[in-house]
Give the backbone structure.
Amino acid sequence: MASDAWENKGLHAVLAPSWIGDTAMAAPFLASLRAAFPEARIEAVATPWTAGLLERFPWLDAVHRVGGEGSRWAGAWSLRRRLGGGSAEAVWLLANSFRSALLGRWIGGRRLIGYATDGRGWLLTRAVAPPPESPPPHLVDYYLGILEGAGVRPSVREVRLPVQEEDARAAEDLLAEVGGADARPLVGLHPGAFFGESKTWPAGEFARLARRLAREAGARVVVLGGAGESEMAAKVCREAEGAAASLAGRDNLRILPALLGRLDALVAGDTGPLHVAALVGTPTVALFGPTDPRRTAPRGAPHRVIRRELECSPCFERTCPLGHHRCMNDIGADEVAAEVVSLLSARSGPVRGEENR
Ligand code: SF4
């Protein structure tokens, strides 16, 4: 009978989450896996929109891209060959879908490990029972639970992503273009939300926040976002009347950690950049609406969460089913500015706004 013992130098294939924020919160899982198997090869399978971030994770030896435009299976056919032709020591499933279990089976290995969700338990060699939903587990712990369920000690619960020098230089160059290279304090705003409009806070409130932070804290404010969020970022900057500059569409996932690491604080909804900022140790003010901070609020560095207690929240819907979007619209710029100023002062002593109080 084949031995059940782990092979220290084996190959571990990790089917990574599909969202940037979830990927950032999977970092302790990957760091723990690396700590448990320091001589192993650990390779991630990722979507094109998260691969750039994973390529910056020091716990991985390689990142394979699958899916994208046209077919989510694009690139999967050669994956089995690239990942050892079925000889992986373990294939770890961080995604919960039936489809990810099929992809794991296709890659092949001694172990196929993941939560027993979406009717796929019979496909796995180790089907881990999902944790109770009440209270909801934090996503970091949820991922670590997969390791625990497979008998591997999750030794890293908090981790910081180091920023690479070349990325730091690229981030500085980008900031220099908008006069932010030497600016202190430097505050980032991220008004977009790939998930859907229910997570967005009004552009007008972001603009008011920028004006207050520039006026009262002497902050240089930059607005971040992807190419598809350029219009919204431009609207924030227009309404901020010179108090903010847009970098939307100018960065990419590879330099995003360096750019976020350069900030003294970031204000964002429950989105990818929020969690990447937390991963590089940047303090955040997180605006939570339709999602649950118990599950995804940043942990580690000093972070603040602003949230309205509404009967309908969290609903996890992409657009507000009630039409009023009060969970985000009821949050005011003054309240957010106070949290940012308090974070900045905790980081570097009283800022202009607090001294004047
Ligand atoms: S239903 Fe409630 S929690 Fe959901 S988006 Fe609307 S206001 Fe927000």
